[in-house]
């Protein structure tokens, strides 16, 4: 009986250790692009009356729609694509509840990001941390149009 208890205890320890060593099924960086992409980054309102929507695919293709302009496409530079994929993989998408995307006052600038994995969430949400910087940089970068962008090359 004592030998059986010791064997069961030893087996349980091995199973627990193997489970702990295996860790989560996947790390944030190992998530497939299909889970996180396409990202939709929207900027509306503000004193300037923005109306921008960027739809970004996992391979770096962006469809840009801006108020008062014709829709255009571009592809992220390799370094910008890497930064964006890393930022998107670090967002705690499943823990985000959809944010209020309406303005708080008449000239409120509302910038949000949304993924099939979660959102939309305002970029000032503290749960985004430093990742919001990358999304903001991209929206600001394409503001000047396809020829002025440093992060996205026209097709």
Shape descriptor reads globular
Radius of gyration: 22 Å
Terminal CA distance reads 74 Å
Please provide the ordered H/E string of secondary-structure elements: HHEEEEHEEHE
- Given the helix and strand composition, which structural class is it? alpha+beta
Mean pLDDT: 80
Can you count the beta strands?
A: 7
Instruction: State the low-pLDDT regions, or none.
Output: 3-32
Q: Roughly how much helix do the residues carry, as a percent range?
A: 25-40%
Strand content: 25-35%
* Count of discrete domains: 1
Largest sheet: 7 strands, antiparallel
> Helix count, per DSSP?
4
Strand order of the largest sheet: 6-5-1-2-3-4-7
Explain this structure to me?
The protein has 155 residues and is α+β, with helices and mostly antiparallel strands. The chain has one domain (30-154). The protein is built from 4 helices and 7 strands, in the order H-H-E-E-E-E-H-E-E-H-E. The chain has a 7-stranded antiparallel sheet with strand order 6-5-1-2-3-4-7. A hairpin with a 2-residue loop joins strand 5 and strand 6. It is globular, with a radius of gyration of 22 Å. The N and C termini lie far apart (74 Å).
